Amino acid sequence: MAPYVGAAVAVLMLSLVGCAAQEPLPPTPIPRDEASIERVDMSYLPELKPPAACAGYVALTFDDGPTNLTPDLLAVLDHYEIPAAFFNTGTQERVHSRLVERTLAAGHQLGNHTMTHPDLLAVGLKDALADIDAATVTHRDLSHDAAPLFRPPFGNTSAEIRAAVESRGMLEVLWTVDSKDFEATTVEQVVEKSKGMTDGGILLMHDGKPLTIEALPLIVEHYYAQGLCFGRVVAADTELPTDRFDQTHRARAEKQEP
Ligand SMILES: [Zn+2]
Question: How far is the CA of 18 from the centre of ligand 1 (A)?
Fold first, then answer.
């Protein structure tokens, strides 16, 4: 474990609430005071130089937060002045409500990742939409923000779900590369799996994973070396491929306007 994440991570790992991709979220954890968590030591973060001219844009996305580690994630993103999209569950937003405003205030995008993280295809359309709507209500109550993005848990979606979320004013966002950080045991694994995006690509990662935070500077360095910069998630004009079986989506990364 790199030193900049600090010894606090070892303690935090005992209380992490992220989800493995094929498992439902665990029960709601005991709320903690995020401000009391030791922050990332910025002096250990490598200085990285963005490309002089961006050959394209890719987007970082973090699912299943907010968590105890969201402040650390925000600190690293802030250090490199990189935008990201956070696909939060309503359940986690209730636990870490202050982090919702904080993430928005830092200029990041927020997305609906349902209330309780069910497999939307397994629960049926009615219950699926009820769970999505519950997250929307929670998010609006906490932030007065509309959370214009949506990501189905496990990427499990259907034409009906997609049409329903679009009718609710949200853009369904899958991913072009999966970092597989939920099953990684080393930083190197996260970095290797995170490679492969080209212009417009969207990377799936998870909030609450110490390895992901450690990997982030190396992932940024990799894409800078490709001439790519980091942008926000926007609607694409056409259907684009994802690495979620043969699914497509209409989302891509684009330059974040100031
Ligand atoms: Zn998830």
Answer: 8
Is the residue at 225 inside a domain?
Answer: yes
Cα distance between residue 135 and residue 47, in whole Å: 37
Scan for tokens 């910069």, then name that residue: 229
Determine phi and psi for 126, rounding to 5 degrees. Answer: -60, -50
In this structure, is residue 154 part of a structural domain?
yes
In the predicted model, is pLDDT for residue 238 greater than 60? yes
Model confidence over 15-67: pLDDT tens digits? 443 344 455 554 444 444 454 444 556 677 899 999 999 999 999 999 999 99
Can you say whether the dihedral through the CA atoms of 209, 213, 216, 218 is positive or negative? negative
Q: How far apart are CA 92 and CA 66, in angstroms?
A: 6
Among this protein's residues, is 63 annotated catalytic?
A: yes
Which of 96, 108, 117, 206 is flagged as catalytic? 206
Q: CATH number of the domain at 206, please.
A: 3.20.20.370
Q: Which domain holds residue 235?
A: 9-18+49-254
